[in-house]
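Why do we bother with a discrete structure alphabet at all? Because it lets us treat a fold like text: something you can write down, compare, and reason about line by line. To make this less abstract, here is a complete entry for FAD-dependent protein C-terminal domain-containing protein. Read it the way you would read a sentence in a foreign language you are learning: slowly, and without expecting to understand everything at once.
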Amino acid sequence: MLRIEVHTPVSDQADPIETAIREHHIKAADVHSAEIVHRSLDARAKRAPRYDWQIDLELENEAFYLKKLKARHTEPYHYQVPEAGSEVLETRPVIAGFGPAGMAAAYLLAAKGYRPIVVERGPAIEDRKAAVDSYWKTGVLDPERNVQFGEGGAGAFSDGKLTTRVKDPRVRLILTELVKAGADPSIMWMNHPHIGTDALCGIDENLRKAIERMGGEVRFMTKLEQIVTDHGSLKEVKLSDGSVLPCRMLILAIGHSARDTFRMLAECGVPMEAKQFAVGFRAEHLQSFINARQYRSIPEGTVLPAAEYHLSHTSSLGKGVYSFCMCPGGYVVAAASEKDTVVVNGMSYAARDGRNANSALVIQTDASDFGKGLMAGVEFQERMEHLAFEMGNGKAPCETIAHYLDPSAGNEISDVLPTYPLGVKMLDLHPLLNERMNQSLAEMLVHTEKIFPGFTKNGALFTGVETRTSSPVRILRNLSTMESEVAGLYPCGEGAGYSGGIVSSAIDGVKAAEQIIARFAPPEGLE
Ligand code: FAD
């Protein structure tokens, strides 16, 4: 198979495969198959913006074309599920959590005949959507039905960005299954693919129905409340509905916000450690401002996707400060899972056509910020979230970035209207961070203003606080078998500290399922 490239003006509606075949003078009769594998937008140069395409072709007389086209040889995509093992599985595998990691693990196990039982503390997506809508309208939070908990996990009310730095053949597996479940096929080749929350919810539901059709079972509003071990091996799990399930294999895919479950696991003696994470604020700008900066020359009438940005800086104190989860044309959301707290995050719809761009600007924290002890990071997050609630009197604390940098600048809302659904209160955000964090963020902003003029001006806002960037703990596991020291327990996904984002969490879920498949034969006759 050969990989060739072609460039097309963004306004060009022609099929890029046909354009590539024509421009590279390939005989149509020689083409056995052709597939777009990548598209990126080049809009920073002075010339008119263009799309750069990569196309894989299976050709007659490949050696001839390899030389003629100066093309790259490439292997066809291949993913192989491991052969089933021979150990006898005495109980159906249980998966706690139905976010990307738990869902991907359940999908693969169900597809291979292992009939997993998923327990998810939150509700199915329709019920969850109603609860989240109600919270965003009334401010009354349901601690089990919210942006963190329920079908689809933390990824459901998101921008649905599918970018990942993980280089793994399973990325394509995940994208392929998402397309089968209803995602737009363009996610297979977009440079920065995204789905949007409106599309994601239906996709999550389709994936669950597929899991059920393949023999899996999903129990909503059912929380894993305790694990019971016998001589260091998992024996059973106790659930919030009062039931006790015999359980020798448990995939723990609980996400980064299940603080009660982290505490329960620590009490049950599951080996864990505190880990670094980042906290900060959501920045909001007019999307038109970001577009103008990122797209140098846009010919009249050309429609380009809402532009993105990525920023990172190391402060003089050695702290990393970076943009995170940028949502072009998106909205700042209320993402709390505990009462009397404020937690912000970002989402967008598939069209990414909101007036504002938002992105978290977060500062790396460590024990020098949150203190020593397994739960010190969790407690640090909790303190920040409660303080934000108190400072904003239930609304989100908000400040113009200009005022954050210089108290003599105005702190009134102007061009950028905040999108946080429960209202904001304009004040000074400094009390939410410690001195080192404030200094590091200020240095990053001063640096950013130099390379991105206007970023800290033009009414740009900060809304706080962004605390749920990654897990504050790691649930330890053997690096090759993925098993905890508690035999039969497989911590995976973002909450366990091994992934960050939808795709990498789903990959970690697939890997956990592979471990079980490689070890055990599919269960027969187990209820
Ligand atoms: P989660 O998705 O957190 O799922 C864990 C699940 O476990 C939850 O459903 C929870 O209810 C359940 N659970 C917890 N405890 C228990 C228990 N005791 N018993 C039973 N069930 C339990 N990432 C991206 O890549 N792109 C984005 O655009 C993006 N945007 C985001 C926007 C928002 C608003 C948020 C909150 C996150 C966003 N993320 C995004 C991050 C992404 O959602 C997470 O990285 C990903 O969902 C982690 O997957 P996971 O399966 O490990 O955990």
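What the structure line is telling us, in plain words: The chain has a mean pLDDT of 95. The radius of gyration is 24 Å.
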